[in-house]
Design a protein that fits this description.
single chain, alpha/beta, six-stranded parallel beta sheet, two-stranded antiparallel ribbon, 14 helices, 8 strands, 51% helix, globular
Amino acid sequence: MRRAFICPSKYVQGENELLNLGYFVRQYGTKALLVATESSVNRVRQTLEATAAKFGVTFVETEFQGECSRVEIARLGELARQHSCNCTVGLGGGKALDTARCVAAGQGVIVVPTTAATDAPTSHSAVIYTPDGEMEDYAYFPRNPDVVLMDVSIIAASPVRYLVSGMGDALSTYFEARANVRSCAPVNAGLPCGARTGDCPPARGTLAAQALAATCYRTLLDDGYKAVLACQAKMATPALENIIEANSLLSGLGFESGGLAAAHAVHDGLTALEETHTYLHGEKVAFGTLVQLVLENAPTEELDEVLGFCTSVGLPVCLSDIGITDISPEALRKVARKACLPEESIHAMPFPITEESVAAAIMAADALGNAFRS
């Protein structure tokens, strides 16, 4: 059986780590395209200016528009060519990082999250959205980012909601990897060499990926609530540092080399409803994880453990938590249909999936969440 495991060339996590960004840019040249929103740049401008001066580099600012769309990728790619940039730096949230990956096409890319809101930083893939915010497609690149720079000081000062969203994304990692083991489904780690086009056989996950996914879940249960309290106080503590690593590194490597399943497919389905667009990726994935557990008919003890964790840190456990207060049969079918598209990860589940079963699981998960909270 063919197996695959992939990861970034370098992962660095520490306080005030952004001061070293210029050092990594210098490995490529002296000019970097900076994919970041104006608010993200302004938040760390003094540090960017300090690292630019220290290492003699220039950041070409882009005024990223906020969506990783094909239109935005093309615009920023042209800007990079006009300024003869040597590498691309993505700074900010998951969509800025994904856009940087797309602009660089996997070559010479440094990602600098300002939150720990998703497991996107370490990935060789990106999620492409329409300009209106609806999920459209996935893009895959020849390799993972060259550098992932996690500045604990910046993340500790970010809104708690983003850290909690990252825990929602990370929450799915173990359960989706477990489903892939049971179904022996191919994982994303096998895609760079052409698995989509048949140039090479698909690859299954590794023991290493399974171990990382399990450690990710255990870290969330052990340190999640303590990390929320630390982030509320804007203090870097061991618990917060552990959760930053779980959200970013453990979850990132775990999902990419361990596989996705129903949780992320349900997230993608939920993006079809406009009322969910103001909610973060991890918030919707957390509810998607509950839906996956319902599909699996998971033991009550496991469901209670996940529901208890979600409520303790403030993750969604029912539809109203992600803006859906009254879902019509038509809207429910729309979500289920999108979640069950042939290319979706839901088909990695170790049993047949239908739109009807997904719709039923969504409503059952919503009922379980409401009952647990009451």
